[in-house]
Amino acid sequence: MKTNQSVKLDKLRILIEEEIQLGKFSSNMLQHIRSKELPRLNESQIRAHHTALLKTFKDTAHDYSSQVLFEEIGTVQHIGNGVANISGLSNVGLDELVLFPNGVNGLVLNLESHALDVILLGNEQGIHGGDQVTSQRERLKIPVGPDLLGRVIDPLGQPLDNQRPIRAINFDFLEKPAQSIIQRSPVNEPLQTGLKIVDALFPIGRGQRELVIGDRQTGKTALVVDCMLNQKDSNVLCVYVSIGQKKSSVLSVINTLQKHNAMQYCTVIVANPDDPPALRYLAPFSGSTIAEYFLDQGRDVLVIFDDLGKHADAYREISLLLRRPPGREAYPGDIFYLHARLLERAGKLNEEMGGGSITALPIIPMQQGNLSAYIPTNLISICDGQIVLSSEKFNRGLKPAVNIGLSVSRVGGSAQNEAMRSVSEDLKLELSQFEEVEQFTRFGTEIDQATLRQIQRGQKLQWLLTQPNERPLSMAEEVISLIAGIKGFLDQIELNQIHDYESKLLVWFKREHTDIIHTIQFEKSIARIQDELLQLLEEFNQSWISGAE
């Protein structure tokens, strides 16, 4: 007895034969083949091809099986400002994707009893109320792999640099749990920024989260770009995430990286101000996901979020459109958790996990120096320290305009090698004494000669810690410059000659005494060569003074 399945297949074959009319099709096809000029085929060969072709059709009909697909459909109830309210789709989960009729994906952020709210990952043009929406049954992923180095992409991993498509090794989730404490190790390896004031006073370790904060136009982006340029020969990869920055500013950063051949180890993610708020919200998570791919390969990665103030604004905009209740300064209650779970993905892994690290430098703007605003205080409590930039110092020409009193690195000397640590201890003492004494002189207090010399040395140290943009120094160059300052070799140098003195000093060492620079750079200590180094500094100082006279 035939089963129901075999009966259905027999009916299907009969139906196909009736529809195709195999007898008539066979006659027509044979006639068509004969009408063609095929000098290499005789009658028997034509019949053989004809028979083989018919057999293929019959086998295909025999193997044909029917399949019923069930697809859950939702309906657009309302759309506007990059957010859609959809009814139906009762089996869709949070952070899953849905597909709109115009081909744009949406990310589910709100689940209610009879509806869900979706943020659009593209243009809402062409989507109307009543349109059908289907579930993708998957969470949002972006491409990852070494091919992303040297590229400019959007938060979804699509190229923006008019080059070839991205060749992805894999696709990874935007949101993932951070590594556990057991998988991590202490931060004890320095990430050299090339900036004397940072490396000496507020050292950053590989795996640290150091906040860069300051008023508008105080050099925050310039500071982190110099840090990226300094990673050229340090085997550290960089991911720069631009969130809502002006296109001219982003283009300037990209041009700077290209000019210094730094794009080869950098990836730039751009979410423009005119992009949907969803892309500005997802941009930093894309940066972390790309960095985690290299972390899993055992690499060290530097991630820069420029800036998380605009990221918080994008999330506030989305939350208000989703009708989530506003809290302090109209931000949603989970804004702290948003940045905490983002920055928690930075850290250093232990050797069993590959020993890689992600160092995060989030940027946040202040309003009129208000360090106690909502978002800045959130990020200060999340991060392992902050570099505070001062408008007053910036306007005086002291760049990088780091406020020494308010800045701190909670990793501290653990992220410094022996050479830099031996220099920075004396430098901190000199600067703290200078700032304390300088406070009294502002009230017109009379001071003795010793105090005057202390103030003059402090002012020269302040200028020594400044340096122009796009001119990061090697660790050895920083150590030589700082030793010249704290050992009193600048005492006889005029304040306006400090930069000229320093540049010629370093050129002299690189030309005449490369062995000293190599020893400091590779041994990371000055204990063995300290006397020789001081003698050489004295020699250069005498030649400088005699030349000036």
Considering DSSP H and I runs of 4 or more, what fraction of the residues is helical? 40-55%
Amino- and carboxy-terminal Cα gap:
117 Å
Going by CATH, what is the homologous superfamily of the largest domain? P-loop containing nucleotide triphosphate hydrolases
Main sheet record: 9 strands, mixed
The CATH class of the largest domain is identified as Alpha Beta
Total strands: the figure is: 17
Helical segment count: 17
Please name the CATH architecture of the largest domain.
3-Layer(aba) Sandwich
Low-confidence stretches: none
What structural category characterises the helix and strand content?
A: alpha/beta
Summarize model confidence as the mean pLDDT.
Answer: 88
Estimate what percentage of residues fall within beta strands.
15-25%
Domains counted in the coordinates: how many? 4
User: For the CA atoms, what is the radius of gyration?
Assistant: 33 Å
| Backbone shape | elongated
CATH topology of the largest domain: Rossmann fold
What does this structure look like?
Strands 8, 10, 11, 12, 13, 14, 15, 16 and 17 form a 9-stranded mixed beta sheet that branches. The chain has a 6-stranded antiparallel barrel with strand order 1-2-5-4-3-6. A two-stranded antiparallel sheet has the order 7-9. The longest helix is centred in the last third of the chain and has 24 residues. The model has no long low-confidence stretch (mean pLDDT 88). The chain has 549 residues and is an alpha/beta fold. The protein folds into 4 domains: 60 residues, no CATH class; 67 residues, Elongation Factor Tu (Ef-tu), domain 3 (Beta Barrel); 273 residues, Rossmann fold (3-Layer(aba) Sandwich), CATH 3.40.50.300; 130 residues, Lysin, CATH 1.20.150. β3 and β4 form a beta hairpin. 43% of the residues lie in helices and 17% in strands. α7 packs across α8 and α12 packs across α13. It is elongated, with a radius of gyration of 33 Å. The chain is built from 17 helices and 17 strands. The termini are far apart.
